[in-house]
Amino acid sequence: MKPPPFDYHAPRDLAEALAVLAGVGERGKVLAGGQSLIPLLNMRLAVPEHLVDINRLAELDTLSVASDGVTVGALARHSRVERSTQAAAVQPLLRKALRLVAHPVIRNRGTIVGSLVHADPAAEMPAALTLLGGSVRLARDGGEVRDVPAADFFTGPLESALRPGELAVSAFFPALPPRSGTAFHELARRHGDFALAGVAAAVTLDESGATTSAKVACIGVGSTPVVLDVTGAEPDEVAHAVRGAIEPDADIHASARYRSHLAGVLATRAIDEANGEARRALDHTGR
Amino acid sequence: MHSITLVVNGVVREATVPARTLLSDCLRHHLGLTGTHVGCEHGVCGCCTVLLDGEPVRSCLTLAVTADGHEITTVEGLAGPDGEMSPVQRGFNECHGLQCGFCTPGFLCTATALLRDNPDPTDEEIVEGVAGNLCRCTGYQNILKAVRRAGELIREEA
């Protein structure tokens, strides 16, 4: 239970980090919070030749909140964003999702961008980003920067669109239109564990109170977050629609059938709660 | 090998470690501070929790080289200068908040930060705050009482 040997790089700024990453290519791994990577190293499931520690890159320790959304830098720890009332005001789903990520002590160290790049199919942050239609900004040596929409970023279990030599420098979680509500429900064997299944929901109403958009993102039931548009579905149809769209795997923790059942139940609850929040927002702003 | 400098419990300590050395192993093997216990070594049990710049973190999920230049507080650093127990330690003492004691250093560090940030937590906040620490003796009821009592002591002495 000790990490295998690796060459350690501790760049002082972004330019140096990108130069190092360009040099090591696919033989290198980036270390940010390490709350997923170091367990993998300890268990020897990951054996990178080079480890590029970005913890000294203060320029990536950023959280910027604007009316159109929240941008988190690659070194913004889960706990910092969770505590930000400004971030919660602009995009409430962020805090709801963050409170389900492991335990507070893990969130003190883990980073949101790290969770996204790790791309665990049962993790909360990829689902939140995908549901909201956010994006991840990738940089590489030479100044080339690209923004990858969440829908294209998650390509498989623990696989993302990040290419060797690239560094994910930030992620953008867009705000929702007025009269919107969100929710995140999940079930885990033990508090703080990865969920057996989970569902994030976002609902938007028009000025008359009619639903203009209702979407869910399901975790733990596919190789990437499964997003489903359930606009127009009656409350009792949501579970059925979700179960028809997913093909969960069975493992030691739960059967495929149970995961499918769970996703339907959680989706119904999440849509109901998001809808309630959207209705309160509607009442609050006046019709 | 990498030469690092840590401020551990207020004392500047230097160590020369391979890059792959975990902070938990650096504290125990290189600095001789064996109060930090190592349980699962993959972040699940919470026994190895220490304060890094005041925030509780898993020392088994942190590389010693990453902590270079930072402040660490271990269980050895919780008591006062003359060895008088901190309010959190007294709470655990009074309420029988430990049995075998293996998980205790992690609980003490976690609870110290929890009560510093929120000296009057609700029962729900206490449970959420220490949920990442496992006690295999399952003495959780007394641990929760101990944290509650520690909060009282801190508030009385404030």
From TrEMBL, chain A:
<dbReference type="GO" id="GO:0016491">
    <property type="term" value="F:oxidoreductase activity"/>
</dbReference>
<keyword id="KW-0560">Oxidoreductase</keyword>
<dbReference type="InterPro" id="IPR016169">
    <property type="entry name" value="FAD-bd_PCMH_sub2"/>
</dbReference>
<dbReference type="InterPro" id="IPR051312">
    <property type="entry name" value="Diverse_Substr_Oxidored"/>
</dbReference>
<dbReference type="GO" id="GO:0071949">
    <property type="term" value="F:FAD binding"/>
</dbReference>
<feature type="domain" description="FAD-binding PCMH-type">
    <location>
        <begin position="1"/>
        <end position="178"/>
    </location>
</feature>
<dbReference type="Pfam" id="PF00941">
    <property type="entry name" value="FAD_binding_5"/>
</dbReference>
<dbReference type="InterPro" id="IPR005107">
    <property type="entry name" value="CO_DH_flav_C"/>
</dbReference>
<dbReference type="InterPro" id="IPR016167">
    <property type="entry name" value="FAD-bd_PCMH_sub1"/>
</dbReference>
<protein>
    <submittedName>
        <fullName>Carbon-monoxide dehydrogenase medium subunit</fullName>
    </submittedName>
</protein>
<dbReference type="InterPro" id="IPR002346">
    <property type="entry name" value="Mopterin_DH_FAD-bd"/>
</dbReference>
<dbReference type="InterPro" id="IPR036318">
    <property type="entry name" value="FAD-bd_PCMH-like_sf"/>
</dbReference>
<keyword id="KW-0274">FAD</keyword>
<keyword id="KW-0285">Flavoprotein</keyword>
<dbReference type="InterPro" id="IPR036683">
    <property type="entry name" value="CO_DH_flav_C_dom_sf"/>
</dbReference>
<dbReference type="Pfam" id="PF03450">
    <property type="entry name" value="CO_deh_flav_C"/>
</dbReference>
<dbReference type="InterPro" id="IPR016166">
    <property type="entry name" value="FAD-bd_PCMH"/>
</dbReference>
From TrEMBL, chain B:
<dbReference type="InterPro" id="IPR051452">
    <property type="entry name" value="Diverse_Oxidoreductases"/>
</dbReference>
<dbReference type="GO" id="GO:0016491">
    <property type="term" value="F:oxidoreductase activity"/>
</dbReference>
<keyword id="KW-0560">Oxidoreductase</keyword>
<dbReference type="InterPro" id="IPR036010">
    <property type="entry name" value="2Fe-2S_ferredoxin-like_sf"/>
</dbReference>
<dbReference type="InterPro" id="IPR001041">
    <property type="entry name" value="2Fe-2S_ferredoxin-type"/>
</dbReference>
<dbReference type="InterPro" id="IPR036884">
    <property type="entry name" value="2Fe-2S-bd_dom_sf"/>
</dbReference>
<keyword id="KW-0408">Iron</keyword>
<dbReference type="Pfam" id="PF00111">
    <property type="entry name" value="Fer2"/>
</dbReference>
<comment type="pathway">
    <text>Alkaloid degradation; nicotine degradation.</text>
</comment>
<keyword id="KW-0411">Iron-sulfur</keyword>
<dbReference type="GO" id="GO:0051537">
    <property type="term" value="F:2 iron, 2 sulfur cluster binding"/>
</dbReference>
<dbReference type="InterPro" id="IPR012675">
    <property type="entry name" value="Beta-grasp_dom_sf"/>
</dbReference>
<keyword id="KW-0479">Metal-binding</keyword>
<dbReference type="GO" id="GO:0046872">
    <property type="term" value="F:metal ion binding"/>
</dbReference>
<dbReference type="Pfam" id="PF01799">
    <property type="entry name" value="Fer2_2"/>
</dbReference>
<feature type="domain" description="2Fe-2S ferredoxin-type">
    <location>
        <begin position="2"/>
        <end position="78"/>
    </location>
</feature>
<keyword id="KW-0001">2Fe-2S</keyword>
<protein>
    <submittedName>
        <fullName>Carbon-monoxide dehydrogenase small subunit</fullName>
    </submittedName>
</protein>
<dbReference type="InterPro" id="IPR002888">
    <property type="entry name" value="2Fe-2S-bd"/>
</dbReference>
